[in-house]
Amino acid sequence: MKLSICAVGKLRRGPELDLVTDYLARATKSGAQMGLGPIETREVEDKRNIGMRAEAELLDAAIPKGHARVMLDERGKVMSSPDFSRWLAGQRDQGQPGVAFVIGGADGLEPGFRTTADLSLSFGKMVWPHMLVRVMLAEQIYRAVSILAGTPYHRS
């Protein structure tokens, strides 16, 4: 099952890009054995700077057809890492061709676009910078793959 991270903004050279690259490389390598991957990143930018609606249109076009939509949103469902790994495995086992994780810009996701989510996911009640959310998501994808593989990375 293919995984995509569709996000507003471009990660530039620096610690966030290094971490995302590392976690996604690990997840891709381990996930291949379990039918998870490849993992790709699709970045979009509202070059006209006209707001959330324009970002939503760009994100909508970036989401591969037929992929389940997981919107990262502070109002979303809070899941444990094992629950997230089970959800991801469930999508794979049900024959879902892919999952797209959607991260909005600094103002979040346009309300109407949020309603197209198959799952709305939150990393807690705090608001996180959208570039840091990519790092957290990449790590959680790797953690989910590790849980499913039974490796010692996730300890609880």
TL;DR?
With 156 residues, the protein is an alpha/beta fold.
What is the straight-line distance between the termini?
26 Å
Average pLDDT, to the nearest integer? 94
Uncertain spans: none
What is the molecular shape? Answer: globular
From N to C, what is the helix and strand string?
A: EHEHEHEHEH
Oligomer: single chain
Helix content: 40-55%
Percent of sequence in beta strands: 15-25%
- Please report the total strand number as a whole number: 5
Radius of gyration: 15 Å
- The SS-based structural class is alpha/beta
Main sheet specs: 5 strands, parallel
**Strands side by side in the biggest sheet:** 2-1-4-3-5
How many DSSP helices?
5
Could you describe the 3D structure shown?
With 156 residues, the chain is of the alpha/beta class. It is 42% helix and 22% strand. The protein has five helices and five strands. Strands 2-1-4-3-5 form a five-stranded parallel sheet. β1, α1 and β2 form a beta-alpha-beta unit. α1 packs parallel to α5 and α3 packs across α5. The chain is globular. The chain starts with a strand and ends in a 7-residue tail after the last helix. The model has no long low-confidence stretch (mean pLDDT 94).
